[in-house]
Amino acid sequence: MTSADVEQTRKSQPAVQLATRIIFLIAGIGVSTWAPLVPYAKSRLDVSDAALGGLLLFLGLGSLIAMPLTGSLVGKQGCKRVIVCSSLIVILMLPFMATLSSPVTLALALMLFGAAIGTLDVAMNIQAVEVEKAAERTMMSGFHGFYSIGGIAGAGLVSALLWLGLSPLQAVLTMLLLLLLLLLASQRGMLTERMHQQDTPLFVVPRGWVLFLGVLCFILFLTEGAVLDWSALLLTQERKMPAAQAGLGYAVFSIAMSIGRLTGDRIVNRFSNRLVLAGGCLCAALGVLLLISVDNVTIALLSFLLIGFGAANTVPILFSAAGRQTVMPVNMAVSAMTTIGYAGILAGPALIGFVAHGFGLVTAFAAIVVLLVAVAASARLVTR
Length: 384
Known about the structure:
mainly alpha, Growth Hormone, Chain: A, 2 domains, 17 helices
């Protein structure tokens, strides 16, 4: 952005900040609306768990294809156009995902949905970086907190609507209306400035400092993916918790992360990015260590609290660091970093599975402790 663009953004900060929060909320609601519909899709298609898992990979594949391209797209078209178009695709795909009964057509819908989600994720983080820079104060954790709120609200509302007897399509149409209203409310504060010249390549390979930030992001997203996909199994196998209660761990983690992000900006402003990144990673590492070393259900749930609070503000700090670096244009850096980080969510749980198969699940989680300590050790470099 030019200095004039930054000044204009600074003057319209209240509207711009509100719009950015709404967009993060839309992204969280959009992603989580799909989660309660998965069992209905399995029943409608009459496929095995393995086949369903294969279909769900198309969502991640769509995101991984779109994310590296979004930085250039935002640079040429501006945040507003990209955010609005990707949000509309997310919204329009939901009814198809609630009704399609062919594996092929559902796979295509999931791929388009994933591409739109990936595009929206990158574009909204680029806007958040620019808004934070213009405001000259820490705001990234709060923005990501609204994504967490959206995730809880979306899954909760759809589940409640289904419990009340609405069909999956009726529930989705209700959410569709809500998302459209939110998107309409965000329009006044969208950033429209282009960020680079038209001849910029469609994709730039991350290098140097941006690649380093991406690797750190990969580790942190891997940790979140491990908690999502493997924590329930760890609780049932190692802590003998009943399967019906094993989801409590992730619930505690999600609530702690949401609270941590909503209060994160004040915490960062008081203690600095370096201390929060280092302390957060060490707190999360301590939580994982307690989870695998103490055979007590209460301590296990406390460990998820520590992991959630510890990890809450680490990724937002990395996005802020991407906005400050000068190795690559901000839009391309955020695009690259988001792609590498998202690969951690997709590939990370599989890597945990391979390690668990050869050495046990406890060993796999112990490796996460080491990785989190390594991120903590890099805090001074990241926030210099």
